[in-house]
Amino acid sequence: MDPAARTRAAFWALFKYGSLLLIGLMVMLPVVIILLASLKTTKEFSQGAPFDTPGNWFNVDNFATALNQGGMLPAFSNTTFILIISVVGSVLIGSMAAYAIDRFEFRMRRVVLFLFLLAALVPTVTSQVATFKIVNSLGLFNTRWAAIVLYLSTDIISLYIFLQFMRSIPKALDEAALLDGASHFTIYRRVILPLLKPAIVTVVIIKGVFVYNDFYIPFLYMPSRDLPVVATSLFRFRGPYETQWEVIAAGVIIAIIPTLLIFLFLQRYIYNGFARGAVK
Predict the structure, then answer these.
(1) What pTM value is reported for the model?
(2) Which of 182, 203, 227, 266 could disulfide-link 177, Cβ–Cβ 3.0 to 4.6 Å?
């Protein structure tokens, strides 16, 4: 390789890795600020700059306040209950819908898929009045089931992921199972569902992160202070006269830890799911 080519290669390598490093620093910057704020006292936070280091790096008072006064332990319990039922239900509904759309021939099949796309394009805010009236008429308002029912909807991303994986499963497996006397539900449960494992893991992670981080639905449909979730528990530290930002920052760090650990263990399933769904 001539010197000019080596120079160009070195320049583009420097540009590529420098850009990635810069983007990584920009992404981590808010997290660093929140971490520093969570370790500061009220006086240090109010009088210092965002990047000022705390006087005591082992100050855990804000974390204790967030856990005790913020009700984060009951919030984690409520969030876990809502998340498990919502995610499991979404996987079952989404995979069944994808199985029916891909495997069965029926009238207006394309129209059904179009309606899923159309529903995804409608802004959520425009339908909130009608949705609130329905939830209230069912007697679910201010209960955990209000959020669960709203989360148990098959979003188009989950349906698309299941459809892409479903199309990679040979229909010959279905025909062989039918010849052996299996019903369509048996085929779905014993043939299709095990082969959808990568798609299921991908949908579980995407849907789980959304439910875990969602603030709007719990805040609107579960306003009682006795029904906190992780996203709303820290809201009680914000008031008309004072906002305890250092405690909120500590609560944010506590809330980040579970999702961070889960993502580190399961990140390869996310990438594989999106990559395989994109090329099929």
Answers:
(1) 0.81
(2) 182
